[in-house]
């Protein structure tokens, strides 16, 4: 993702600080969606403001916040400018990073791909894990392995999580466990990528139900075609399946998809880009 300088190239600091930068990166999309036969024109904007720096002793530090907004022409009150979200502050040294803020759960590892320019929700049928909010996150990376632990320091219940992900040759893996008081969630994803083909197998147990699914992608030049199937063992129609494409325009992506999400027809077509 291309970084756009927000303040100055470098702000020279004192008291042992070598330098600091403030940058803005972002993404946006626009297109047409159809859910259960109701068609809407939508757009979404997400800016990430991040300040980072380092000390002479090699300690890195920083903070970030998201500026989000979205709009849909068919839903009353759907012009949403949510302002500043997901505030995070971090400090890092030799692969070990401590983050405090809206960090989410370390147990939320892996998952399935979705299709469409803004995703049409096929993967949601399998991804039924319960991940309580966390505000303290510790991560460590070594080689191709990343491990993490998170906890909610304000909760009176036992809410913590562990996660690990990495790769071995053409295979990747992601495992997560989250303790949420009365319930716990375990997830596992195994991925494969070689040449033009990639795939993921996903499984989750949230203490009540299980979910599972598979996605397969094929890339030829700038075009990628993806098929997804997802399901869980809850009552009623929980099956979901879809197929979609993404075409790289060079700095932007034209994408679309269609399918069935738990008995509801879903489709979209639009453009997304990052800067």
From TrEMBL:
Signal peptide range: 1-19
Porin domain residues: 7-263
Keywords tagged on the record: Signal
UniProt xrefs under InterPro entries: Gram_neg_porin_domain, Porin_dom_sf
Pfam family of the protein (one): Porin_4
Protein name per its UniProtKB record: Porin
């Amino acid at each position: 993702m291309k970084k756009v300088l927000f303040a100055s190239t470098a702000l020279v600091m004192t008291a042992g600080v070598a330098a600091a930068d403030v940058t803005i990166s972002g993404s946006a999309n626009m297109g047409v969606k159809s859910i259960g036969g109701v068609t809407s024109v939508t757009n979404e904007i997400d800016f990430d403001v991040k300040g980072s720096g380092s000390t002479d002793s090699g300690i890195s530090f920083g903070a970030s916040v998201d500026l989000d907004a979205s709009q849909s022409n068919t839903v009353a009150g759907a012009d949403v400018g949510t302002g500043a979200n997901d505030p995070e502050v971090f400090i890092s040294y030799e692969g070990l990073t401590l983050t405090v803020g809206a960090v989410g759960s370390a147990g939320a590892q892996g998952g399935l791909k979705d299709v469409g320019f803004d995703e049409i929700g096929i993967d949601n049928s399998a991804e039924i894990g319960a991940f309580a909010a966390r505000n303290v996150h510790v991560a460590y990376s070594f080689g191709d392995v990343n491990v993490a632990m998170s906890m909610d320091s304000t909760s009176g219940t036992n809410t913590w999580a562990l996660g690990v992900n990495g790769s071995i040759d053409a295979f990747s893996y992601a495992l997560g466990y989250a303790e949420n008081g009365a319930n716990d969630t375990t997830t596992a994803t195994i991925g494969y990528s070689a040449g033009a083909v990639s795939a993921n197998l996903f499984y989750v147990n949230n203490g009540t139900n299980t979910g599972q699914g598979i996605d397969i992608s094929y890339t030829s030049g700038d075009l990628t075609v993806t098929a997804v199937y997802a399901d869980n063992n809850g009552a009623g129609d929980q099956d979901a399946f879809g197929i979609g494409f993404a075409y790289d325009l060079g700095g932007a992506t034209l994408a679309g998809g269609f399918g069935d999400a738990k008995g509801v027809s879903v489709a979209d077509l639009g453009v997304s880009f990052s800067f």
